[in-house]
Design a protein that fits this description.
The protein is an alpha+beta fold. The chain has one domain. The strands form 3 sheets. The protein has a 6-stranded antiparallel beta sheet, with helices on one face. A two-stranded antiparallel ribbon has the order 6-9. The chain has a two-stranded antiparallel ribbon with strand order 7-8. A hairpin with a 5-residue loop joins β3 and β4. This is Fungal-type protein kinase domain-containing protein. Pfam families: Pkinase_fungal.
Amino acid sequence: MVKFQLNLNSQTALAAAVGEHYRPGIVAAVTMVDNSSVEHRLLVSQPVSSPISMMGQGTRYYWAVDADSRQVVFLKDTWRWNGKRQMEGEILADLHAAGVPNIPQLMYHGDVREPRTQTNEITQPDNDDFEACWALQYTQTDLFCQAHWVSKTVSPFRPLVHYRLVFGTVGYGLEQFRGARELLHGTYDVYQAMLGAFGIEDPAKRRLHCDISLSSIIRPGIPTQQA
């Protein structure tokens, strides 16, 4: 996949490209349960993008391998705002249902859960309900906002929920385009996707993407003989 995407002929260049998302000898297994309560196991190494600030949603992106299907997928590991907002995966599912073109394939998504604890002991419910043993994984910064050692100028924090989203669409960003043809194809495809998302028949499901950059556009992968 890397060789095809970047059209690399040199083994040295290929190794350097793979090194963007794989660190030799370092692989971690990530287990997640999707919104249909199905468990998935993903293998990841080096993130292709990491947060550079202590503030924000702590989003990391990985090329990953689904341990069951052995398919290469794209994992977004982030902390989402809680409340009545739709999850990103739900929005993407709505866009697919409406026939919006040129958007990432949605594989699965879900909040990260952890055992319910009380003084470090798992609380077992009386009805032995497995789901009742688990809670969503939240940030805990908000618990310390009123501590005596915290500056009084600090604004209150709202807890965020740990969330993972897996795409079936994997590739390099458009900043590594090869020629004008590929650049124009990529930007035109994005334009069509934006029009489709904003023109959905149901007004409640219309979306306007306000954070599009070269790195968030997957290269169209046009064969070099056509470029």
